[in-house]
Design goal:
This protein has seven helices and three strands, in the order αααβααβαβα. By secondary structure, it is mainly α. Strand 2, helix 6 and strand 3 form a beta-alpha-beta unit.
Length: 175
């Protein structure tokens, strides 16, 4: 469950890190499939509303939640974002799935809101005892050549780096 950063905005869907994850799982002979339910522009509220149907339809063993960037960019209330993330973790667990919450960061020009936003992901992860990865774009954030012309969305060349960053956090959840 993600936003444009996981949906593969501006690149072919098969180039996005979740598609690369599906290939890696098959290559390493893990018996999992990947349903990339990421939607460009998605907020945590949208993900929370879509999650129950997705849990029923796919019955996942693991739910990766990579949402929040759009909440932050729109300046939405952080208590609502945290509540939505916590509810998604709870719903996933109730459905029998393990969870990995992937955090995001905002530019420092968002001021104190950015600090509170950044701290929300580890706080929710700790509160809900979910696996956590700090910042999805960490391995590419400092290299502007790995971003599309909008300076927000990673290029196809950045996607393997994103997968390599997510993989160690996901690996302990795999059977």
């Amino acid at each position: 469950m993600g936003d444009s950063l996981s949906a593969g905005y501006g690149i072919r869907a098969e180039q996005a890190w979740p598609s690369l994850l599906a290939s890696r799982l098959a290559e390493k002979r893990f018996d999992y499939s990947v349903a990339n339910l990421s939607v460009s522009g998605e907020t945590t509220a949208g993900g929370r509303s879509r999650l129950p149907e997705a849990l029923e339809r796919y019955r996942p063993a693991i739910v990766i939640i990579a949402l929040g960037a759009n909440d932050g960019l729109r300046g939405l209330p952080l208590n609502q974002m945290r509540e939505n993330l916590a509810a998604m973790i709870d719903a996933s667990r109730t459905a029998g799935a393990k969870t990995l919450l992937i955090g995001m960061r905002l530019p420092p020009n968002y001021g104190p809101y950015a600090n509170d936003f950044d701290a929300s992901f580890p706080a929710v992860s700790q509160q809900k005892k979910s696996a956590h990865l700090d910042f999805l774009l960490a391995p590419v954030a400092a290299d502007r050549s790995l971003f599309q012309s909008d300076n927000l969305h990673p290029t196809a060349q950045a996607q393997p780096r994103l997968l390599d960053y997510v993989w160690p956090a996901l690996l302990p959840l795999l059977k």
